[in-house]
Model the fold of this input.
Amino acid sequence: MKAESLGSQGAAEDAGRGSRHLTSVVTGMATSDGAGVKLTRIIGQPALPDLDPFLMLDEFNSDDPKAYIAGFPDHPHRGFETVTYMLAGALRHRDNKGNVGLLGPGAMQWMTAGRGIVHSEMPEQRDGLMRGFQLWLNLPARDKLSPAHYRDVAAEDIPTVQLGDGLTARLLAGEIEGRRGAVETGATEPIYLDVIAEPSAMGALSVPFDHTAFLYPYEGEVTVGHGEAAKQLRRRQLGILSLGNRLDLAAGPSGARMLFAAAKPLREPIAKYGPFVMNTEAEIHQAIADFRAGRF
Ligand code: MN
Done:
């Protein structure tokens, strides 16, 4: 699926009004990764291989330790960023650059793999609920071999912004309504929100017109768009949004919680091999060789 084609269609339809609407809906696929962690892959699966510049979105949500306890032991990354946002449980990060972090409920980790990092992401808990998301954000060709960078953001350091009556957002990244998020980074100018809607709450937010954008309600349901173009998005459906400079939201009667992400598309070739995402096959071979030679 190409964001470009969706985008030009959206641009034409929305030129007069500017309110984004749903152009397609994708349902996640159950799979496992790491040492056998069960998860739902929403972006990065056959129905949606990527959504430029987003490469992957995983949701993990289980109260069965067998489904998560083996975690993600040491593994490499090169060429993009991983953004992990926790709702419940605790995840311990360690990497070969000497960074250690514990990610608890409401906290976020933003890791720029750049030219290479080897890390582990291991559940700290022995029981109870483990819930969260990992988003992979691509880097432009010129930044793929930049130095690796890691940062943890504690739950209390994530600002909240009011979007309407009963509609608030935790501002994980980017700038919305003049408020700056916990992280501001990168060539794709990402905006990443966890939106919390009370029952039947309504509101709108301003967004850059031509950013690729999606909405993912992980609790409740939400109506997206304005007037006749408004459509309902159900729990655990990923809605791809048309272009536009505004997003109108109306929560269902039980309220909703949803991820909203937007970023500038890169429109560069993608060569992907597991945890390496480059522009060409030759660069993938180089990544494998560099990793094997201990150059990460
Ligand atoms: Mn990883």
The radius of gyration is 18 Å. Helices lie at 3-14, 281-292.
